[in-house]
User: Fold this.
Amino acid sequence: MTIIIAGTLDFEPDKAERAIVEGKEFIEASLREPGCRYYAWTLDPLIPGRVYVFEEWESQAALEGHFNDSSYWGMRDHLGKYGLRTSSVKKYRFDVSEQVYDDKGTPRADFFTGGAS
Assistant:
């Protein structure tokens, strides 16, 4: 079952970009972990200091491995150096995913294929 981690981190505005750039080693280490499909920190273009976190893990075991990896703990220490003000990060699990657009290029809110992919 796929697990998504998504949320926001709010930093002092003049430090957010530096936190991402100087955290490259932690992002790259996470991307190399077994079961990591996607891992990114991105700046919000409209809210100064806001960073979005988005991760995709192939299983609960993969996410647990990440939480036990030294790079995870290094990342936590790293982010604390940049004036982290607040954070709201949640995990979601799901068993069905599909493209937003159908074969005619129409965006669909419903799950139209009926299967997991």
The chain has a mean pLDDT of 93. The first strand starts at residue 2 and ends at 11. The beta strands are 2-11, 36-43, 50-57, 84-94.
